[in-house]
Model the fold of this input.
Amino acid sequence: MTDDPSTLPPRWAESLLRMMLRPADRESISGDLLEEYRQSIVPALGARADRWYVRQVGWYVLRATWPWAALAGGILVGRYLLDTLAPVQYTRGIRHPRSTIMSWALIATYALGGCWQAWRTARLSGGIVGAFVTTALGGALSSLGTVLCLAVWHDPQMWRAIQGSGGIEEALYGVPLMLVPVGVLVGTVGATFGRTAAAIYDVSKPNTKSA
Done:
């Protein structure tokens, strides 16, 4: 007997949810959500039930990745504030220590975020998806932070400093968009390490118990 398609959520959303769950929670959380979807949401919302399910999955993915995204966004906003409130003289062809520190801090955030997600989910795909969401959400948070900073500091001197550090377009969407492929690439490397570490840990557990 096959399930009625009208009582099944979008397969991609269900797969995404399971991808981002810990192995110990995979069956219970996805099963509870599916049961609520079938028994309560479909009868109440009808065709809108799929949108409800997608929102639940989206909120879970955000909860799983927001700390790393907030850290990435904070680094970008911090760089923006430093460049506008305490500008330094950049020389073409020479990397300033401030840029080096901020760049490595972002790389470490993306790598550790992907590593952590792959470790906790025991899935490489979970780490890669986590890296993408971290990068995209971190960029969105940095744009929001930039807007809030402009609401506080918007005098002519500040605008001159902004133009001298790359312009408002660069802070709002230029850098966040540019960092998406970088974050996914670095996060994938981190996810590979995390998945490998999780596999080694799983293999070593029986040996630990028998020792």
Remarks:
- The chain is about 85% helix and 0% strand.
- The chain has a mean pLDDT of 84.
- The first helix runs from residue 11 to 19.
- The helical segments are 11-19, 23-45, 49-85, 97-121, 124-152, 156-164, 168-210.
